[in-house]
Amino acid sequence: MKVRGIVLACGNTQSPAVTDGDRFEVRRVASRPGRDEVDPVLAELGDGRLVVHGTDADLNAVALRLLRAERLAEVPVGYVPVDRRSAVAELWGLPTDPGRALDLALSGDADRVSLVRDDVGGVLVGRGSLGPVRGVGYGDDTVVLRGQASRIEVTPDPGGGPGLLVHVISKRLLGRRVTTTPARAFQLGCLPVEVTSDGVPHPRPMGKWTWYRHTEDLRLVRGVQ
């Protein structure tokens, strides 16, 4: 029986309830799996589907390997989030109930969605954040920050815009103010700031940072079953 795809059960997550009738193989891999674990799976996959059962950080790591292997255009990627607070699930309208999420990941249609890259070799599939921040930031040619903000969040644009959305969040006496700017690229020069991509902190504070839309999209499974 030909296998339709491979499910990567990442980290200590419980193996998903895949049956023989689903025609998917389950492979256990580490959290945030790297080249030595993902690339052999890609070599076996052929024209099959890859399903990531794990966290946003795990999906991020797999998307990076697809980018490096130049397989973004070929491989449909399903996602079964283990965290109901998943920014990827919220952004792209994916179910967080394990059963529904697995059903969709195994049999839903794949859509092309924006994949965001950074200038230090990483990618962003859900939410990136910086802050508190003081500096100057641009969304394409638009100044989105000149001064300070409590936080800046960047996500791929789910609305089919130029590529990403830049949310500048500032505290006020009564709540907070959020300014959102669509752009193809976001560039920031600032005092050293903590950067987090899909829940993973960058190893050191950064004085400049860029997120921009990649030339190829991620084929994320999120359509009807």
From TrEMBL:
InterPro entries: ATP-NAD_kinase_N. This is Diacylglycerol kinase-like protein. It comes from Saccharothrix lopnurensis. The lineage of its organism: Bacteria, Bacillati, Actinomycetota, Actinomycetes, Pseudonocardiales.
